[in-house]
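ingest -> validate -> predict -> emit
validate: passed (alphabet ok, no gaps, 95 aa)
predict: started
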Amino acid sequence: MQEPILTIDVTLDESFSVTGAKQTVNMVTFHGSAQSDLFDGVILPGGVDTQHHPQGGAGRLSARYMLDGKDLCGEPCRIFVDNTAHTGDGPMTTH
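emit:
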């Protein structure tokens, strides 16, 4: 098994939901931190996981956030994360 490049620890903050005639949408805000040999930092305010759950269909998730920290040389840097996933009958896959 390959070692992870970056480990991100996430703590959920708040959850908001709206249900319409065709789907439910949830938005979950979060904060956290990230550690590795290459980067050490925190999730900037504003991280959110948006979850679309259409009636009778596959859902989709999208978590977008930025990490602020230092690289392996101790220099300040930021990383943008856009993690998407699709749900259905099979295993969930992320991109």
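The first strand starts at residue 7 and ends at 19.
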